[in-house]
Design brief:
The structure holds two protein chains of two kinds. Chain A is of the alpha+beta class. Chain A contains nine helices and 22 strands. In chain A, a hairpin with a 2-residue loop joins β1 and β2. Classes of the chains: A alpha+beta, B mainly alpha. Chains A and B meet through β6 and α4 of A and α8 and α9 of B. Chain A: Its main location: membrane.
Chain lengths: 372, 285
């Protein structure tokens, strides 16, 4: 285990800035997920930590030691690549052993080390095969084994499940936390899949355009995404985003949805008249009776059952689409007119212009108390 | 392959035969000539029916050429040895210099790297005679004319750009991640070059080396100008058969057959490297 600190990292390719003054602290033994769309600079960041590319500015500290100028082979990190990057002219055994041979271990020690990690990853029966004779899943496990075998204190995993099929990805998503916990390493895990991020990360760092936009626990990111874009990327079905202009009411600000007032608890006059985006998670909306207060009339367009939940697409009177998610097996309308009730405390308000989350002016503790 | 109608098959057969005859005929004719005396070669009309003789080969190997004007010494075997020596050493030197350079050009984009690489390639554009005149003078000043060292140096103009540009492409085709992975596993850049880059570019290096060897072997003009008889390769040595008492077609044919044999054998042997899967399914499934 070790710590990792990145200080004001800048990386440019030609005129394009790929990493823009990025700083990040990863604690000893922490599992940090680096999440972001492709092109955000996640892979560049990981390679920079591994030492195969150099930053233009900034420092990389591993275990408190400045490693910025240190070559990759002396940094003592393990890395698994998204495209596996196996050595095509070597057997799976030699691929995995490559992380040990550099350290002048005895032949027996190398064989024992490789056998152990291969057994753990269930590839001990294909060790003599060359990469081209391995299935995708076996390649991925071999690449993972190569990263793990030297028990590096810092483990960098670059979207290791990206190129494997859905079934295997699901299996590995369950298996990886156990594996990584047994390894006891500090882990940085890159992914574009929010479910993977939520399942694997102690903390998630969300990255866009070379900058870290939000760092927090999976629950933090899901419940209070700092930006519209983050809210959109986390959650399936996607969060409902509705343009609103809050107005002043007798008991604080409210937004009008299809002629129905939705109170925005905690928000004061500062948001009145401002172009905003209201974000409501599909699971924060329920079907209600027409007579219930604040019921919004909609028309049900389509219903999609997804194993554990049912997602309904509805249209408001103004033709805006609203997704509603409810646990599978619970009753709900399949067609025709219906009414929705929105849990306004779960609603998120974003500044339309900047895309940033707007926090209620009242203290959060009070708001939480109200919610409870 | 799709099933073909009989007509298609026949037409295809005829077309293939024509192509093969067109390209193979000169070679077959040379081979036939090498077993004939000048008299049967110069018969009109020519005929493929003759009594084969090994005199031409015997003359080449013993170095004694019987002509109407008497016995002539020829240095064909020495020329052949020169060809082998010059080509092998030139390619070896070019590989030694060119492969690391190709790796550098492929992996490290430094200021002016493209310009330097292109300049090296441009040596191949210039007609050899353009560089030959100044070179002859330089070589005389430097005492390099008519030395193996000087010839091998000049042969780098042929071999080095070829190897550099072909091998560079092969290095560029190797995923950088594969090399990064080896570095991160704890190996130095030099170990990575030796254990990852070289083996993966192996087929390309073999192909480039083979091509460079053939180009060096076939070179005529550099050796003609810069070397005298005892350092000349077969390409130039064959001129010795144009004698005062006539052109010795039989010996020329035999000399050509002997001189293309090594390159032909090498090409056949190296064929498997050329067709071997190059990336070996390195990256992704």
């Amino acid at each position: 285990m070790t710590t990792l600190q990145l200080k004001n990292i800048v990386k440019r390719y030609k005129s394009q800035t790929v990493l823009d003054d990025l700083s990040l602290d990863v604690a000893d033994g922490e599992r940090l997920v680096l999440f972001g769309p492709s092109g955000a600079g996640k892979t560049v960041l990981l390679r920079l930590v591994a030492g195969v590319i150099d930053p233009d500015e900034g420092r990389v500290l591993i275990g408190g030691e400045d490693m910025t100028e240190v070559d990759a082979e002396h940094r003592g990190v393990g890395m698994a690549f998204q495209n596996f990057a196996l050595f095509p002219h070597m057997s799976a055994f030699d691929n995995i052993a490559s992380a040990l041979t550099a350290r002048r271990f005895s032949k027996e020690a190398i064989a024992a080390g490789v056998e152990k990690v291969a057994k753990l990853l269930k590839i001990d029966h294909v060790l003599t095969h060359h990469p081209k004779a391995l299935s995708n899943g076996q390649k991925q496990r071999t690449a993972l084994a190569r990263a793990l075998v030297g028990s590096p204190p810092l483990l960098l995993l670059d979207d290791p499940l990206r190129n494997v099929d859905a079934k295997l990805r699901f299996e590995m998503r369950l298996e990886l936390p156990r594996l990584l916990a047994a390894q006891g390493a500090t882990v940085i895990y890159v992914t574009q899949d929010y479910k993977e991020a939520m399942a694997l990360g102690d903390r998630i760092a969300v990255m866009f355009e070379g900058q870290l936009r939000q760092i927090g626990t999976p629950a933090d990111i899901y419940d209070t995404p700092a930006e519209l874009e983050i809210a959109r990327l986390f959650g399936d079905p996607t969060i409902n985003l509705l343009d609103v202009v809050p107005q002043r009411g007798p008991d604080g600000a409210f937004a009008e949805l299809s002629g129905v007032r939705l109170r925005l608890p905690g928000f004061g006059p500062e948001i009145v008249g401002k172009a905003c985006v209201l974000g409501i998670r599909p699971e924060s909306i329920v079907f209600s009776e027409a007579s219930a207060t604040g019921a919004i009339p909609v028309r049900v367009e389509a219903e999609t059952p997804l194993n554990e939940k049912t997602v309904t697409l509805t249209l408001t009177a103004r033709g805006r689409e609203v997704l509603v998610s409810r646990p599978a097996g619970t009753p709900g309308p399949a067609t025709g007119p219906a009414h929705l009730a929105v849990n306004s405390r779960a609603a998120l308000l974003f500044d339309k212009e900047s895309g940033r989350l707007m926090r209620p002016s009242e203290p959060a503790s009070k708001r939480n108390g109200e919610a409870a | 392959m799709e099933a073909m109608s009989p007509l298609e098959r026949i037409l295809r057969g005829i077309a293939l035969t024509l192509v093969v005859i067109f390209f193979m005929f000169p070679i077959v004719w040379i081979l036939l000539m090498s077993f004939q005396t000048n008299e049967t070669i110069l018969r009109i009309p020519p005929s493929v029916v003759f009594t084969p003789t090994l005199d031409n080969y015997a003359a080449l190997i013993t170095g004694k050429l019987q002509t109407a004007a008497g016995t002539l010494d020829i240095a064909f075997m020495r020329n052949l040895g020169n060809s082998v020596f010059l080509s092998v050493v030139s390619v070896a030197v070019a590989l030694l210099l060119g492969v690391p350079a190709a790796y550098a050009f492929a992996r490290h984009k430094f200021r002016g790297s493209e310009d330097i690489a292109f300049t090296l390639l441009s040596f191949r554009f210039a007609p050899p005679l353009l560089v030959l005149l100044p070179l002859t003078q330089y070589f005389q000043w430097l005492g390099l004319s008519n030395t193996y060292f000087g010839l091998i140096w000049v042969y780098q103009l042929i071999c080095l750009p070829l190897i550099l540009w072909i091998v560079r492409g092969y290095f560029e085709d190797i995923s950088a991640d594969v090399e990064y992975a080896y570095r991160i596993a704890g190996h130095s850049w030099f170990a990575t070059f030796r254990k990852i880059a070289l083996p993966l570019a192996g087929p390309g290096i073999a192909a480039a080396g083979l091509l460079a060897f053939i180009f060096a072997w076939n070179n005529f003009v550099f050796a003609l100008v810069l070397a005298s008889a005892d350092k000349q390769p077969v390409t130039v040595g064959a001129l010795a058969f144009v004698t005062a008492s006539g052109i010795q077609y039989g010996q020329i044919a035999a000399a050509i057959v002997l001189s293309i044999t090594p390159t032909l054998a090498l090409a056949l042997y190296a064929q498997r490297y050329l067709v071997e899967g190059l990336s070996l399914g390195a990256v992704k499934g």
